[in-house]
Amino acid sequence: HGTSKINDFGHLEIGGIDTVELVAKYGTPLFVYDVALIRERASEFQQAFQAENVPYQVAYASKAFSCMAMFQLADELGLSLDVVSGGELYTAMQAGFPMNRIHFHGNNKSLAELEMAVDAKIGCVVVDNFYELRELSRICAERSYQMDILLRITPGVEAHTHDYISTGQEDSKFGFDLVSGQAHEAVQLAQADQNLHLLGVHSHIGSQIFETTGFVMAVEKMFELISEWRESYGFTPTVLNLGGGFGIRYIDGDTPLPVGEYVQKMIEVVKEKAAAMDLSMPEIWIEPGRSLVGDAGTTLYSIGSQKHIPNVRDYLAVDGGMSDNLRPALYQAQYEGVLANRANEETTETFSIAGKCCESGDMLIWDLPLPKANHEDILAVFCTGAYGYAMANNYNRIPRPAVVFVEDGEAFEVIKRESYEDLLRLDLPLAKKVTK
Ligand code: LLP
Fold first, then answer.
1. If I label 164, which of 9, 138, 226, 402 is the partner at 20 to 30 A Cα–Cα?
2. What keyword terms does UniProt attach to this protein (predicted)?
3. Quick one: which of 92, 90, 129, 97 has its CA closest to 113?
């Protein structure tokens, strides 16, 4: 997919570059991003809105993969940015990302983070709870600044891939709920507050979603709320943020829709609902993370040890694992992969791919069809671009991999490989007791 193909040497090539050469230059494990594919995904989302002539913002949910270069690319692509921490906001500042296109999320933003957001005059804060509403107002008042906000609503719709449920009692740590009257109380407080300018509402129903049904249910819930708010408080939103969660294809059985189709359906229902209420069309904002960067990322590993258990299984171990991809261990996530240096060869064997961490659960892929492989081979695991590097860690004091962007036959390193010295950067030696 994307610009990936098998070249004349039988090697996997991405962005016009031979992955075997990438490994020779940058080592393994290595995250490789197909920049053309990120561009394509961004434009698919944007075109879906433009085709319907609807005012919109597509905010990249940067938790999926954040670094300065990624933020600069997002800026170049005309995306807004959803950040969820001071660290992501700081990275955006250092990357020179326009502050007015930043949306700040999170269920427990610290006071320091809220101050940082107000001082930076970011585009909007998605207010999650009463504590935040109060503290943000105070921080704005101290600075004589009015901040644009959305209220995060727990829509009572939860979606996981193709299952979606309507949860009557909305048991979630995020947002103002619809059932106990929190959303109504919040809108009244926000409206009465001179320090806050309420743009509208936000809802997010889940992640890795393959159908439009959940989004339609969420739009319906939001419009019930909007209708009540208009009647009771004379408030009509100018922004409706419907969150992220658009699924991608990790393995053969995954059946996401083309990203534009989610958007089309959302627009259709919002138009219908707005017309029925005689409401002018709100701006629609979305926050895709995974669907912008997930399938653009590939991880390259060197293969090391093997273990053959007769009549049971063949293990093949790679030089990374749950330290660079937590998703299999955390969510039983599944991936596909190939031998990058022998991508044209027939897959005659079945290997289970183990990581190198001291933990039995550190398995990346079970039963992967491959050619006969050994320690000279490179394994490419596909679709690791979202929540891969982002959730990478130093378990077992394994340094985090390097990340390169590739496009049009050129590679750009965007995150350097961690060194052993980097691992010790914050360590302090044991303070010795002074004994006489
Ligand atoms: N907006 C909000 C408010 C969110 O909470 C999330 C994801 C997104 C947008 C972006 O969702 P996406 O388009 O990427 O599905 N670590 C998990 C995923 C956690 C998603 C958390 N929130 C994983 O690796 O599957």
1. 226
2. Amino-acid biosynthesis, Decarboxylase, Lyase, Lysine biosynthesis, Pyridoxal phosphate
3. 90
- The residues carrying an active-site annotation are 358
pLDDT given at position 435:
66
CA of 209, closest atom in ligand 1:
15
pLDDT digits (tens, 9 = 90+) for 69-127: 999 999 999 999 999 999 999 999 999 999 999 999 999 999 999 999 999 999 999 99
For residues 203 and 112, state if they share a domain.
Answer: yes
Residue 259 and residue 122 share a domain: yes
The letter for the amino acid at 312 is: V
Predicted TM-score of the model (pTM): 0.97
- 243 in ligand 1 pocket by Cβ < 6 Å? yes
Mean pLDDT for 117-143 is 98
Same domain, 241 and 328: no
Ligand 1 centroid, distance to 274 Cα (angstroms): 27
Helix (H) or strand (E) holding 136: helix 130-142
Task: Give the orientation angle of helix 68-76 with respect to helix 86-94, to 10 degrees.
Answer: 70
Q: Is residue 45 part of a domain?
A: no
What's the pLDDT score for residue 166? 72
Phi then psi dihedrals of residue 70, to 5 deg: -65, -40
Cα of 355 to ligand 1 centre, how many Å? Answer: 25
Average pLDDT over residues 405-415: 98
230 marked as part of a ligand binding site = no
Is 290 assigned a ligand-binding role in the annotation?
yes
Ligand 1 atom at minimal distance to the Cα of residue 391: 16
Report CA(201)–ligand 1 centroid distance (Å).
18
Is the domain of 287 the same as that of 144?
A: yes
- Residue 90 confidence (pLDDT): 98
Task: Specify if 436 maps to a domain.
Answer: no
The verdict on the CB of residue 256 being under 6 Å from ligand 1 is: no
Question: What is the per-residue pLDDT across 12-44, written as a single tens digit (0 to 9) for each?
Answer: 999 999 999 999 999 999 999 999 999 999 999
- Work out the burial of residue 306: count CB atoms within 10 Å of its CB; fewer than 13 is exposed, 13-18 middle, 19 or more buried: middle
168 has pLDDT over 70: no
Rounded to whole angstroms, how far apart are CA atoms 248 and 255?
Answer: 8
The predicted complex's ipTM stands at 0.99
Domain ends where: 261, 293, 325? Answer: 293
Ligand 1 neighbourhood includes 45 CB (under 6 angstroms): no
Q: Would you say the CB of residue 327 lies under 6 angstroms from ligand 1?
A: yes
Three-class SS state of 126:
strand
